Amino acid sequence: MNKLFYGDCLTVMQEMKSNSVDLIYLDPPFNSNRQYNSIYKDETGRPLPDQIDAFCDMWEIDAETERAYRTMPVLMREAGIDDATVEFWRLWMNALRQTQPRLLAYLVYMVQRLLQMRIILLSTGSIFLHCDQTASHYIKIMMDAIFGHQNFRNEIIWQRAAGRAKGSQHAPRSLGVDTDSILHYSKTDRYLWNAVYAALTEDEMRAKFPRSDDQGRYHTDVPIWSAPSMGARPNLCYTYQSPHGPVTNPHPSGWRVSRERLAEMDAAGEIIWRKDKTPLRKSYAHRYMGKPIGSLWLDIPNVGGSERMGYATQKPIALLERIILASTSENATVLDPFAGCATTLEAAHRLGRRWIGVDIAIHAVKRVARQRLVDRLGLVEGTDFQIDGVPRNVEGARDLWTRDPYHFQKWAVEQADGFVTARRTADGGIDGRIYFELSPAAKQLDSMVLEVKGGKNINIGIVRALRGVLEKESALLAGLIVLEDLSDRQRGSFERFMAEAGDLEVHGILYPRMQLLTARELLDGRRFKTPTVHGRREAKPVLPGINP
Question: Model pTM?
Answer without folding.
Answer: 0.78
